[in-house]
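User: Okay, second chain of the day. Same drill as before: sequence in, structure tokens out.
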Amino acid sequence: MEDDEADFECDCEDCISQKPTQPLASDCCGSGCQPCVNDLYDADIKAWKNTCFGRHHDTQVDHKGPETKVIETNSFKSFPLEDIKCESSDTWCYKFSIPDRGSLNLDVGQHLVLRAQVEGRFITRQYTPVSPLKARGYFDMLIKLYNDGIMSKYIREWKVGDMVEWRGPYGSYQYQQNKYTHLVMLAAGTGIAPMLQVIRHIVHNEEEDTFVRLLYCCRTYKDLLLRAEINQLTAYWNFTALYILSKEDESNCHGAFGEDHYFGRLDETLVAKELPPNTSKCQALICGTKSFDKDMIKYLRKLDFQGDIFKF
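Assistant: Same drill. Structure tokens below.
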């Protein structure tokens, strides 16, 4: 944006009515999300000023690239909700339609931003699609609903056919084929979403020699998300999974044939046991709650982990 556009102040009622709402300080979680709600606001303000400037100075404002994209990072787009499927007592899978069998064409590990207007202001949250990266005509979102969550309140009201605003994709994770001999995934709850993307990407590539070990933490067996697909993926030679259940009664847990369970918490001792002997050629991927992520990073550092650590 040129300097005169950046400094432009508009008092037109029509433009002001479309001005993006500045997020509250409480809207930022402080965990270093990319993009942060404040980054999105800054980008929206720039785009809004650009549009207003063009409208009042008879200049052409063209945000279109060489081709129409299904979804973009510089604006929100609405998608119809096609289906709602219960995955656990507090987590649901929401399927959205993409017109004309379009595809998000995501790269591995990327996520989208959801926007909602709640109580007169806009709020945003980030979610990772669990559908295949190049799926055509749809995308699936795995979302946990919280009793006191502002966005959860909005999502609970969704009905099939509703139009929902999404924007993206975002994400700084870059996977390089065979860069590592081992990937150790430390995931909790809906943190399985980006892990599933990476697992599929590796096992479906016949040129891959990387071995992937998933340590997936949930409170109980019923809380395990996407378990059926994870079990199917363990048929590949280079992927195994351990289900770590912190609140499950071992005597009453009867999992599927071939599953590997651990009853208790993922602590430093278990992490040490699961790491390969040479961690210099290993990458650790982490995704869970703030406290879970913090604990996993602490354990790895105390164990003198020599490889790369990436937190989704």
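The chain is about 25% helix and 25% strand.

User: Thanks, on to the next one.
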